[in-house]
Design goal:
Elements (H helix, E strand, L loop, with lengths): L16 E2 L18 E6 L4 E3 L3 E3 L1 E9 L5 E6 L5 E8 L4 E8 L2 E7 L8 E8 L8 H33 L3 H8 L4 H5 L10 H5 L15 H11 L4 H20 L7 H17 L13 H26 L1 H19 L18 H18 L2 H6 L1
Parallel strand pairs: 2-5, 4-10
Antiparallel strand pairs: 1-8, 2-3, 5-8, 6-7, 6-9, 9-10
Helix pairs in contact: 1-2, 1-6, 1-8, 2-5, 5-6, 7-8, 7-10, 8-9, 9-10
Length: 380
């Protein structure tokens, strides 16, 4: 699950956008000049912006967090779908977020403490046109959509097998089927935002629930199997609901709003989540199958990168060299935790000590830093 998401509304929006996010946290200043730059000043109780109208096309948010809490900044469609986001902006730091948007209404939201709906400002992109995209990038998007569809198609029968075991009351069979049923979903998490409200239905953890939200999905059943050690009528109903929601996901992939930059940015954001959350063991806190998720996430991020690589290499060859190096290093590190590199039979994560978890975290961070530059490399 992508941590600390805003609620996603599935109503169809009248506008569409292509987005690009780039830039690492820095203590320095941002270039705040130009009609296409919006200065965003975030505090613990305010989200101040320098302008509410700007020309459509390339846009830069120059963000500064003057509050005491870690914050996030989102660009949203009017119906709350996420156009793009930047998480984990520490107190006293600045970041630049570049985007390419069509004319229409949007919202900029600051989210102090990374909780709630955020403090919002309505903005408008006027006139202008979005720059034409390299046709190789259109091919990359089409290929990634095919990949995502394949993952959804392969996930459904595995989820049905998992649900059947739950409904049969077969605890051991359900435990065995649990992690394999999640691999396809975890591989597509770089673009999970494009699937609307599926993620909070199938992959939310107890501590990620919004007010009034019913807990459904894999992790609710994970708790029943490993902690509660009980399968009741509720769990059997939830197993059916999981299959229903994943069937919905399978149908949405072909219509999902996937762009080259959402592929790049989603991969980076996902690895940030891995480094700050999944490496701690909080994702699969009952089953300890975290390394299965971890590997699938890296595979999904690497697929995005490989498809975008030809354009990125042309625009920033040193970046591609570094990304190749860091992906290889992280995959080698993960292979230490499974006997067969072609299987997903990983060591139970509760057997992985703190020192080894630190190495995994360092490996992810070493990859996430150059990956944060991929969107800019393909948007040149």
């Amino acid at each position: 699950m992508r941590a600390a998401r805003l609620s996603v509304v599935t109503a169809t929006a009248a506008v569409a956008a292509l987005t690009a996010v780039t830039g690492c946290t820095e203590k320095g200043s941002s270039d705040s000049s130009g009609e296409r730059v919006i200065n965003v000043t975030a505090t613990d109780d305010k989200c101040e912006i320098s302008k509410k109208e700007f020309p459509a096309g390339h846009l830069e948010l120059a963000i500064e967090n003057k509050g005491s809490k870690v914050t996030e900044v989102y660009v949203l469609f009017p119906d709350d779908r996420i156009v793009t986001e930047r998480e984990n902006i520490g107190p006293g730091t600045k970041q630049k977020v570049t985007a390419e948007v069509k004319a229409g209404d949007y919202r900029i939201a600051c989210k102090p403490g990374m909780k709630g709906d955020g403090i919002r400002q309505d903005v408008k992109a006027t006139g202008g046109k979005v720059a034409k995209r390299d046709p190789r990038l259109d091919k990359a998007v089409a290929a990634y959509r095919t990949y995502a569809q394949e993952q959804a198609d392969e996930t459904l029968p595995k989820a049905e097998a998992f649900a059947k075991a739950v409904k049969d009351g077969d605890m051991e069979a359900a435990k065995k089927a649990y992690a394999p049923s999640r691999i396809g979903w975890e591989r597509t998490e770089p673009v999970a935002e494009s699937f609307g409200d599926i993620d909070p239905k199938v992959d939310v953890r107890a501590d990620g629930l919004e007010d009034g939200q019913k807990w459904t999905g894999w992790h609710r059943l994970e708790k029943a199997l490993w902690q509660d050690k009980k399968i009741g009528a509720t769990e059997k109903t939830l197993a059916d609901q999981l299959v229903t929601d994943l069937t919905d996901w399978q149908k949405r992939v072909g219509k999902a709003d996937i762009t080259p930059t959402s592929m790049a940015n989603g991969a980076k954001e996902l690895l940030d989540e891995v480094a700050t959350g999944k490496v701690t063991g909080e994702e699969e806190r009952y089953s300890h199958t975290d390394l299965v998720d971890f590997k699938a996430n890296v595979e999904g991020a690497e697929k995005s990168y490989e498809l975008l690589k030809p354009v990125a290499k042309e625009n920033d060859a040193p970046l591609v060299t570094e990304l190749d190096k860091q992906f290889a290093a992280l995959n080698t590190l993960l292979d230490k935790y499974r006997a067969n590199p072609s299987s997903y039979d990983f060591v139970s994560y509760d057997k992985v000590g703190e020192a080894d978890r630190k190495k995994l975290s360092d490996g992810v961070n070493a990859l996430a830093e150059p990956l944060s530059k991929l969107a800019a490399a393909v948007a040149k």
